[in-house]
Amino acid sequence: MTAAAPYDALTPDTVLDAIEAAGYATDGRLLALPSYENRVYQVGIEDGTPLVAKFYRPARWSDAAIAEEHAFALELAAAELPVVAPLVIDGATLLVHGGFRYALYPRRGGRAPELESADHLAWMGRLLARLHAVGARARFRARGAIDADTFVREGARAVLASGLLPDNLEERYRARTAAIADLVEQRFASVAPAVLRLHGDCHGGNVLWTDGGPHFVDLDDARTGPAVQDLWMLAPSPRALDALLEGYAEFRDFDPRELDLVEPLRLMRQIHWGGWVAARWHDPAFPRGFPQVGEPRWWEQHLNDLAEAILQLQDA
Predict the structure, then answer these.
(1) Spatial CA neighbour of 268 closest among 205, 216, 313, 219
(2) What predicted TM-score, i.e. pTM, was given to this entire model?
(3) Mind listing the pLDDT tens digit for each residue in 218-244?
(4) Known catalytic residue: 218?
């Protein structure tokens, strides 16, 4: 395994051997599931229900940070929240085989939530309020926070180090991301939100709906942050956000001042996404999946978007 190709050594045989090492007899069936950050597979089990195996991207999270993700998922499941939590195998949830860290999960199907449905949104709001009530019981120590340093400054450093940004745009990018980091920090300071453990990446793709209702998947981006982070990503419109908050209020108070963080959080995610792709450009899946990021015109538009965002933050 080399740094230039982090998953080259993760062959189908390695995946199946890892499942066997965890005590399961596989039937040889292996289906790659959509995932850029990690490698995720549905694995057939002899005389049993298939499992989902998640192989963590090398060097992204520490063992302690992954342990916090797993512990949070198990804590949520123990509170009877519909969260797909990792299986505990011989007292452990984080396993190692062939140099890769991985976890096993029960397979849970479902369809995308209807994010224009007021009933579905209110249901999701109630579940998020309960999730946040559990999240507020303790703090993450190893997983970091949703803040300007992590989502803006670190993202910008990854872009500047990647070689993807055209030379003639570098100074403008550096100046605009620095200005945005300062403005975001000012907005957070003015709102002073309470922070708690969050799902962190609670968009529609990380919620699956069945006839029995929704369940959350993929806590890989769980971090500490304001409650509104888990709400705005599910809301395609202001009306949808109102429906989410209506359900949320049935189980937990929401500080309305946090609504002033929605646009900064959206902008932080945009910058973080650029840094995320840039930092992983050596992984062949990323140039194939996001070819536009390798083109100067994409960065020019990105810089224009950042300039508009600065004006909006300043006006607000």
Answers:
(1) 313
(2) 0.94
(3) 999 999 999 999 999 999 899 999 999
(4) yes
